[in-house]
Amino acid sequence: MNLFIFAELDPQQQTYLKDLLPANIQTYFYNGFENQESESAFASAELLFGNPPSSWFALAPTNLQFWQLESAGFDQFKQVQTNAKVSNMGNFFAEACAETMVAGILAFYRGIQDLVKLQQIQNWQGKKMRLKLDLLGQKTAIVLGAGTIGQAVKRILEGFGTEVKMTARQNPAAQIHSLDELFQHLPHTDIIINTLPGNLDKYVSRKFIQTMKKGSLYANVGRGNTTDETALIEALQSGHLAGAVLDVTEEEPLPKGNPLWEMENVLITQHTGGGQAREVEGKIERFVSNLQLYLAGEEVSDQVNLSQGY
After folding, report:
1. 101 beta partners
2. FRET partner for 26 with CA separation of 20 to 30 A, picked from 2, 53, 182, 218?
3. Is the pLDDT of residue 36 over 80?
4. For the chain, percent of residues with pLDDT exceeding 90
């Protein structure tokens, strides 16, 4: 079987992948479409690992049977038509994303951002800073989305004593099941954590943000387009929101000159939320595990529907 790999793997990682594959798998590692060989390899692929540009599917591999994405999100592929089984990375990034969000939220309440800046200029303001600090365990939170990231966020926050609710239309793990119900909770909730997929464009709308509790905190580890960023910036500038922890933004990289860069009440983690040691090796192992299931005729893990967005 022919396997096309569109992933940033160094020579050692490429060897690691090949060592894990069955002997009958022929591998092709993408290194540029400057020659016809690359086009031919992609077009004839039966197996695909990685996230090639969606435009490539004008060359749609007609024999494609199984495609392992190397991401949890896949909004860019919603128009791609394929009969292949497609899997995303499922819960692979959940714990890392959850820890990043909770770390940012905790840093905000415990003044870590300000303390780091004071350390850099050797300015001792300890006594003054003490009066500005707050306790995460005394807060209430709503997690938008009840998937693996949302559930991990909830579990960690509850460890601090935070009261947490999750939203989802049908997931029984959630406590809030409609937008109307959510809007009733917003004015009384201290922290909103967004873990939503990109198909929910501007879900966190201007009205949503205006309904949030004055002085509350917004965090986003979902997709940048799920938030009305202009309305968010205005709410942060006016003081309606106390701050924001943003792993994602509408445009990435965040353009120079965007007001979010210079706002002291904003922590930008630059889409590093899912990062972790051996991240690439972990993706390889997840792909190989799923490939083994597929070749054995068993159901692959984390299968998704591209057009539906989940």
Report:
1. none
2. 53
3. no
4. 91
Residue ranges of E strands in 137-240: 140-144, 163-167, 191-194, 216-220
Beta 191-194 vs 241-246: how paired, if at all? unpaired
CB-based burial of residue 307 (10 Å sphere; 0-12 exposed, 13-18 middle, 19+ buried)?
Answer: exposed
- Helices first, then strands: H and E counts in the chain: 10, 11
Helix (H, G, I), strand (E, B) or coil at 53: coil
Q: Does 140 have pLDDT greater than 90?
A: yes
- Where would I find the H helices in the chain? 11-20, 36-43, 94-109, 112-120, 126-130, 148-159, 179-185, 206-211, 229-238, 279-295
- Domains of the chain (ranges; CATH) run 2-92+277-295 (3.40.50.720), 94-268 (3.40.50.720)
| pLDDT of 35 over the 70 cut | no
Q: Is a pLDDT exceeding 80 seen at residue 189? A: yes
Give the 3-state secondary structure of residue 270: coil
Between CA 209 and CA 131 the distance in angstroms is 28
Question: What is the distance between the alpha carbons of residues 219 and 187, in angstroms, rounded to a whole number?
Answer: 16
Give the C-alpha separation, 19 to 15, whole Å.
6
Q: What is the SS3 assignment for 178?
A: coil
For the chain, the average pLDDT equals: 96
Model pTM greater than 0.90? yes
Q: Return the biggest CA–CA distance within the chain.
A: 67
Query: Residue 221, Cα to own-chain centre: how many angstroms?
Result: 5
Query: Listing from the earlier edge strand, what are the strands of the sheet with 241-246?
Result: 163-167, 140-144, 191-194, 216-220, 241-246, 266-268
| Ramachandran angles phi, psi of 274, nearest 5° | -85, 0
Rg from Cα positions in the chain: 22
Q: Tell me the one-letter amino acid at 91.
A: N
